[in-house]
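Before relying on records like the one below, remember that each one covers exactly one chain. Contacts with other chains, cofactors or solvent are not represented anywhere in the record.
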Amino acid sequence: RFFSLVSKRLSDRALTQLRAASSGLGAIALPRLFIPIFLLTVLQWLLIVATIACSLKAVEAPVTLAGAVSALLLNVIGLTLPAAPGHVGTVQLAFILGLVPFGVTRAHAFAASVIYNCLIVVPTVILGLPGLRRAGIEIRARFLDRRRARPTSTS
């Protein structure tokens, strides 16, 4: 009923996304999949906290677990916002806001965030380039198929 209040195109897109999310969440309904997914998620978050701590250590800033977790949480919130490529600026703000209350200077927080970006974003982009290229080819092919299927006017 909610989707009847918005355009047909928007409601179709929203329903498609909800179905995809539902399908993806179906994996955690199975106990044999839930435990490994949960453990890998926890491991990922711990590695991110460790990367933040290493970034702070690299610039000789004080490292606390609370500060690293604070920077992580603000970074996650920042990742939900529209941002520049590589989340440049968003990550820096998250580090500064999250670490200054824990005794890290703004300069050290900024420097650590640049190191963090290099450790997290750069390898992710490099590893994602083959997939991006493949996706680009698929998108281009779909676009060309649509153009060919569209009737052209000869007036």
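The helical segments are 8-25, 31-58, 65-79, 90-99, 106-149.
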